[in-house]
Amino acid sequence: MRPEIFSKILHPVIVVPVTGLLYLSFTGISVWETTYWISIWIMTSMVPTVVYVWRTGDEKSLDIISSIDRRPAYGVGLATAVGSTLFLYLLSAPVPVITACLVGLVTASAFAAVNYFSKVSVHTGATTASGTLLLTESLLGLLLLLLSPLVAWSRVKMQRHSSQEVLAGGLLGVTCVLFGVVLFL
């Protein structure tokens, strides 16, 4: 079995927006409206961050190996996430959209802070965080939580992280979303 498959299919750039689409659709927002709000979020938050990472990291996998190079990437990611959340708020996005953005902002902030001083797996954390958020609305979140060990395995097998780093990333993802849910839901 090739570990790259799980790392690419369950990459945060894929998992996070798909989770957003599913989460919002489970909250009762129409498919069209969900697509509209997620598209705005992707264009104002994810695209600038992915472009920055692509230009500074490994263009094939969007991984940034060097801890020094990761720090500005987290700054760009947080700045665009804050800007995107404010923009959506100013556009009068529905409450679940803002809530999802705020929970994501809590999670991204925690990962940025921890990865500034240490290293944890964002891939594993994004999978567990997404599964936890989805679980607040649907049992479909359980599927992502069950897939997170495969993501963790792939990151260790690819020598991107140690076992401790993927475990810490997974636990941080769950903890941040639970904290965010308590604050914002």
Brief characterization of the structure:
With 185 residues, the chain is mostly helical.
Features:
single chain; 185 residues; mainly alpha; 81% helix; globular
Report on the architecture of this protein.
- With 185 residues, this protein is mainly α.
- The chain has one domain.
- It contains eight helices and no strands.
- It has helices spanning 3-9, 12-26, 31-56, 67-90, 95-117, 122-135, 140-157, 163-184.
- Helix 1 (3-9) packs across helix 7 (140-157), helix 2 packs antiparallel against helix 3 (31-56) and helix 7 (140-157) packs antiparallel against helix 8.
H/E element order: HHHHHHHH
Number of strands: 0
User: Helical percent range?
Assistant: over 70%
Globular, elongated, flat, extended or rod-shaped: what is the shape? globular
Give the count of helical stretches.
8
Chain-averaged pLDDT:
92
Instruction: Return the domain count.
Output: 1
Structural class, from secondary structure content? mainly alpha
Q: What is the terminal separation in angstroms?
A: 40 Å
Largest sheet: none
Beta-strand residue percentage: under 5%
Radius of gyration: 15 Å
Low-confidence parts: none
Secondary-structure topology with pairs:
Elements: H1 3-9, H2 12-26, H3 31-56, H4 67-90, H5 95-117, H6 122-135, H7 140-157, H8 163-184
Helix pairs in contact: 1-7, 2-3, 2-6, 3-4, 4-5, 5-8, 6-7, 6-8, 7-8
